[in-house]
């Protein structure tokens, strides 16, 4: 473990994004993969001077915003939905997908100002903002499971959800209508950590940027 991050706490999202992020962090000098893999059911582990918090992706910004973690990795969808007071200096380019509107193939909606439309989503703020910008006041139906089911069953006319390949939509006779936001994961930093631990935090940010350079060459 390189000394650049000694004493820092990093919130990592459990699951696919962490698996993609670990090689990048290793290239940056933060080789925490062994500690992550060996954590078992532990939710907080030490990795050679760096403390790791292993949390659900949606919870990463909360731990960073409250200063429990100095840094973390979070998706732009979560950051934009929650409007946290955080610094997001690096686009990691991981977990690329899009926040999109979708609807049943057999029940298309002609969106126009003043129309009544029911929208199921895990992203009520982003959805409401998008529809209102088009002169539409939607009925937002919050869902936290498979949002597609809201459209399939007729609970909602449209859904707003993350789309990667679109295969789930196709298999459920849904079609993508419009992209609201292109999403990737970002390195996020607690503002106070940026000041109080500036040397170490700046070193991590610079190292991560250098680690990204080879993958971004044309």
CATH uppermost class of the largest domain: Alpha Beta
Rounded to an integer, what's the Rg over CA atoms? 20 Å
Q: N-to-C terminal Cα separation, in Å?
A: 30 Å
CATH topology of the largest domain: D-Maltodextrin-Binding Protein, domain 2
The dominant shape is elongated
The H/E string reads: EHHEEHEHEEEHEHEHEEHH
Q: Based on helices, strands and strand pairing, what is the structural class?
A: alpha/beta
Query: What profile does the largest beta sheet have?
Result: 6 strands, mixed
Instruction: Give the uncertain stretches in residue-range form.
Output: none
Percent helix, as a range, is 25-40%
Largest sheet: spatial strand order: 2-3-1-4-11-5
Proportion of residues in extended strands: 25-35%
CATH superfamily membership of the largest domain, which one? Periplasmic binding protein-like II
Total beta-strand segments: 11
Task: Give average pLDDT, whole number.
Answer: 91
How many H/I helical runs? 9
| CATH-level-2 architecture of the largest domain | 3-Layer(aba) Sandwich
Query: How many structural domains does the protein architecture include?
Result: 2
